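Feature request, filed as a ticket because there's no other form

It would be nice if the structure record came with a short human-readable summary line next to the tokens. Right now we just get the raw output. Example of a typical job, pasted below so the devs can see what we mean:
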Amino acid sequence: MASPLDLKQIVSNWQNSGERVNAHWSGSFDDYLALVKKNPKVTRNAYQRLYDMIMESGTEDYIDFKKQVTRYKFFDDAANNGKDAVFGLDVALMKLVNVLRAASLGYGTEKRVILLHGPVGSAKSTICRMIKKGLEAYSKTDSGPLYTFEWVDEDGKLDGLLGKGAKVFPSPMHEEPLLLIPEELRPKICEELNRGQEGTFRVHIDGELSPPSRFIFRSLMDRYHGDLMKVLSHVRVKRMFLSEADRIGIGTFQPKDEKNQDSTELTGDINYRKIAEYGSDSDPRAFNFDGEFNVANRGIIEFVEVLKLDVAFLYDLLGASQEHRVKPKKFAQTHIDEVIIGHTNEPEYRRLQDNEFMEALRDRTVKIDIPYITRWKEEVNIYKKDFNSQKLRGISIAPHTIEMAAMWAILTRLEKPKKANLTRLQKLKLYNGKTLPNYTEDNVKELRKETIREGLEGISPRYIQDKLSNALVAAQQNNKGSVNPFMVLNELESGLKNHSLLSNEELKADYRELLGVVKQEYEEIIKAEVQRAISADESALQRLCANYIDNVKAYTQKEKVRNQFTGQDEEPDERLMRSIEEKIEIPESRKDDFRREIMNYIGALAIEGKKFNYKMNERLHKALELKLFEDQKDSIKLTSLVSSVTDKDTQEKIDIVKTRLIKDFGYDDVSATDVLHYVASIFARGDVKNK
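Raw output as currently delivered:
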């Protein structure tokens, strides 16, 4: 019997945790200054906080085709088990973080709009979403606290200054409490706060109070005849947490129909209900500072499809980026401290380039290309995140299914190589880290450099995800236990006919041709796996290897070989040796060199007291497997699977092969049977090619 849930105990533990206790810190302005003295980083600006947040997750350096690349672990989204993890965009993300670093140091990029540019589905929105979620979480940690303030009138002596019957007036834009210090005092206060501090960070007060706080501050200064300490006695500082849902420090703006766009959505609007209370629409307390720019103060604002904004909005954007100020209706320009990041697709960006009236915006943007992935294994990771055994119930995905869908996606994004002897498939493998004859890392670097729009065109990951989903649903409806690559490739091909973003028939034909390339590659993969499963008899491989070595030894030493059955000395079996060597394309003219190479290697091992094993030589191992497969496939009668007529002995051998496919290659019973049937049909056609 299950034990009852003790909700009270769970809640008590949660409330007593250190994080919850620290979460609701509040104190006087003096308390806050003491806190700043102890930890100056609580006063960081938005760019500094964002950069520190990313760096805190750690980095990892690696070399990619002779280029030093830094991977930022923040974008692995480990906190959410990789739900929004970004794959294969390390170079683009490195450029983004470099911009944030420069902005955090005040080198000028803090006065720019960060513009993520790329094709649909290239992870622009995901990157923004991760940053916003990260900031929310970071503001709750011991490393990322930030504070704001509210005006208080506990005794009700301020004659309604904070509002009729109000005892508390929160800062409407969640401002930094140090902005309460008058301009003339700031150098002295900063000097005291920075004295004796270790590290490179120094407190710097930049900006002014928002209109309502400024109004209250001036009124209190008048009331107390310039006594700043009495004014600050009405200030209560408290810790704040960034939250998009609560509209604190994180804003998102999405363009609507041009006729319905209104700049007050960005900068706030008059609260007509408050006019009667305060007597004027120019009283800042009668204004709602709830535009997205106001809301995002101290954090980040995301502009979705930023280049679809009406021109009137762009003027607000220019001031916000360059001057860090926005202009609410009827009020002076108001200081903001926030990261401005937008994203856009290719058509809108081309329109920006062609529009001479947008020159000022172009000059104030830092464009960062977020292309499609062009590395096969990274593309595979995107789909395995959503289509895996943990998420799928009642159906499995056969080995190579996701890999083949990802391969096609990558092929559509690659430009045709200029070298006549290089195919797109070979280019894909080179990009993926495979070595090909006559191609060095320098050659791969050149291949990348000679491309113009590689990664900015092609099939979106969303299309692949949709078709994988379709194939899974269709398989479940048809009571098939497994989805294989052919089912998915057929879905991908049928979807091209009505693809919403593809109108070019020539391009569709090219993509269909690439599907044929992928199908052929898949056939080669499964033929090789079945060959290896059939020839995976350890003892048979050892016997064949020993027989080959005996003959090679006799051949190189010009001796004879004793026949174990007849006891007679015979010439080395040239036919056997060549049948093995031909499997790895050793020509007749090179056979002597290869045989001497093998014997020299065995001799060197013997000197060290080691015994030769066929697994030590990859080429020989492959040749032996292929030879054994050729010898055994007829005895196994795999082709009988096509006619479904098998005797008991053959069925036992087929079951052994199937078991090996399941154990060694990750198949389940359904997919192993499917692969065996398909490869058997190829053998039946007699078109087996040795790889």
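Something like this underneath would help us a lot:
Residues 687-691 have pLDDT under 50 and may be disordered.
The two ends are 59 Å apart (CA to CA).
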